[in-house]
Amino acid sequence: MPDVLIIGDSMRSSELRHEVPIAIPDPFLYAEVGGKRLVAVSSFEKGRIDDLGTDLEVHTLEEFGYDELIERGLAETEFWREVWLAAARGLGVQDAVVPTTFPTGHADHLRASGVELRVDQPAFAQRRRIKNEAELAGIRRACRAAEAGLRAGLELLQAAERTAGQLVLDGEQLTCERVKQAVERAFGEHGSAADEFIVSHGSQTAIGHDMGSGPIAANDIVLFDLFPRDRETGCFADFTRTFTIGPAPEEIAEFHELSRKALDLAIGAVGPGVSGRAIHSEVCDFFHKHGYPTQLHKGDAKVLRDGFYHATGHGVGLEVHEQPNVGRLDSELVAGDVIAIEPGLYRHGFGGVRLEDLVLVTDDGAEVLTSFPYELEL
C-alpha cells in the first residue's frame, strides 16, 4: 500500500481538514506511513492537534532541522522546499499518493530528491464521501444557519413598503446588499460564515451563479442560494429557495411548479447504489417532456442559457461542490454521501427559479437535511 502525503493548510485544503479536523492557517505536512498517521507541524500548533485526542502522531518541524535550515539563509521558497523534503524523509515517506491540489513546486523538489509521488485524486475524494459523525453534525449546523439566514432575508423583504415600484425600508430603497448583510449576521449567530452567497433579483436569477446586486423592485423575483460554512468543522450546507414579491408572473409560476415536482422526483430516487447520472436523466426527461431544453436534450456543443442548463446536484461537505456527481458525469451513491439536489428553470434576460435541498444518503433511502417551505409568493 503506498504512503500518503499532503502539504497545505487545513483552512483551504479539504483533504487536510478531513484528516486533521481543526483550522490551521499555515502549511503543514500530513503523511501515512506503515499504518501510522503522521503530522509535521509548527510547534505553535502541536498542542492543538494533541488535544484532539486522535491517533495522529505529531512531530514539530524542529525535529527535521528547521532551525539549521533557517541559519543557512535560504530564500523563502527554497527554504520551505527543503523543510518539507526533510520532514518527508524523516517520517519515512518514499512512495506516496498525493491529491491534485499538492503544490507543484514542492512535488518537483521531492521527486528530484528521490521521493516518488503519484496523483490519485479519486482515492482522496473517496475518503470524504462517507461523512463522519463530526462532519455530519457540522453540516446539520450549517443547514440551520442557512435556514436562519433565509428567514432574516425574508423579514426585510416582507417589512419593506412598496413605493413607486420600489421596495423601501427605513426610508431607503432595499437592495440585495442590505439583505445579504442580514443573512450574514444570521449565519454568524448560528456558528457559520460565508465568503459569498447568492441573493439575486430580476433577470439576475436566470444566471446560475450571479451573486446578486442592486435595488429590488416592488414586483421582483428574488433567489436565495445560501452555502454557509460551519466554523467548527469547516463543513458546508447548500440550500436554495426562490420568491416573488407579490403575485408571480405566469411563466415563473410554471418554472416553480415544475422545479418543485422535479425536486420531489429526484429526492425520491436517492438511495445507496443509485446512479447520479440516472437521477439527472430522470429530471432532464421530466423537464424535456414539458417543453424545456436540458443538458441531455440540447445537442452536442450547444450552450444553453434557457431551460435546465446545469446538473441536478453534487456532493457537499468540506467543499460546497465535491463528489459524488449528480449530473452527466456518473457516480454511484453510497450511504453516508451528502448531496445537494437543485433543479431549476430559467429564461435569459427574464428570470429563473431554483429549488435546492441537502440530502443525506441513508442505508434505505434519503434524509432531507434542510427544512423550509416552498411557497413562491411573498
Describe what this molecule looks like in 3D.
It contains ten helices and 21 strands. The chain is of the alpha+beta class and 378 residues long. The protein has two domains: 3-129, Creatine Amidinohydrolase, Chain A, domain 1, CATH 3.40.350.10; 133-368, Creatine Amidinohydrolase (Alpha-Beta Complex), CATH 3.90.230. The protein has a six-stranded mixed β-sheet with strand order 4-3-2-1-5-6. Strands 16-15-17-20-21 form a five-stranded antiparallel β-sheet. The longest helix is centred in the middle third of the chain and has 27 residues, at 133-159. The chain is globular. The termini are far apart. The model has no long low-confidence stretch (mean pLDDT 97).
Briefly, what is this?
By secondary structure, the chain is α+β, with helices and mostly antiparallel strands. It is built from 10 helices and 21 strands. The chain has a 6-stranded mixed β-sheet with strand order 4-3-2-1-5-6.
Q: Give me the Rg, rounded.
A: 24 Å
Compute the number of helices: 10
Approximately how much beta-strand content do the residues carry? 15-25%
Biggest sheet layout: 6 strands, mixed
Please list the strands of the largest sheet in the order they lie side by side. Answer: 4-3-2-1-5-6
Oligomeric status: single chain
The CATH architecture assignment of the largest domain turns out to be Alpha-Beta Complex
* Overall tally of structural domains: 2
